[in-house]
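sanity check this chain:
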Amino acid sequence: MNVKPKKHLGQHFLKDLETCEKIANQVTFHRGCRRVLEVGPGMGALTDFLKSHDGIELFLVDIDAESIEYLHRKYPLMGDRIIYADFLRQDLTEIMGQEPFIVAGNFPYNISSQILFKCLEHRNQIPEIMGMFQREVAVRIAEKPGTKEYGILSVFMQAFYDIEYCFTVDEHVFVPPPKVKSGVIRCIRNERESLPCDEKLFMRVVKTAFQQRRKTLRNSIKSLTQDAQLPEKFVTQRPERLSVDDFIELTLFIEALGSK
């Protein structure tokens, strides 16, 4: 039995074993975590190499019923650790309980950003994310301030994770081959347990700033500052120049305006 890749699920199955092994070896098991949740395992090409790590407790979640049937046949001893569910809608504590776990996978391009936002919701339970994305998205997540690739997802992810771009994957190692290259990144949970500012306001400030990224902050976030004069360091800056700490400082400034 083989599983037919489904376009509407964004499935591109890995076929090159060397690439699969290379991806699986990027997992560092940060903070000693040995529980791994693989998202979208498909036919288990990456799964085989994740399973080979010593002491690992592996869980598989897939929205494709055909893949789930295949995986049960391939890994009969995994039993209820093979889960038929939509990762984006699933209550992850029902699968993983309250214990830490690593998220890994060859993520479908069409929901890869949503997968990361889901991980951010559970960031204090997820010490590491190792995944493959469309290369453009992977670069954006890992990019540092000062470039055109740096954006909203860069700031949100780097607020809580240290990101490393690991390597690029060519199109020909997939079935069917995608039209673009892929990139593998590793996200390691940093020491920032929470933001020292209102998190919802922080997200709003970042989104508002980047929605008009060609404008200086004085103009792009005018709707949030109540016509107050920004601190001098921000007045002529554009959002791609600001680090996570800068955005936190900016959020605290706007937060203080609301209390006056």
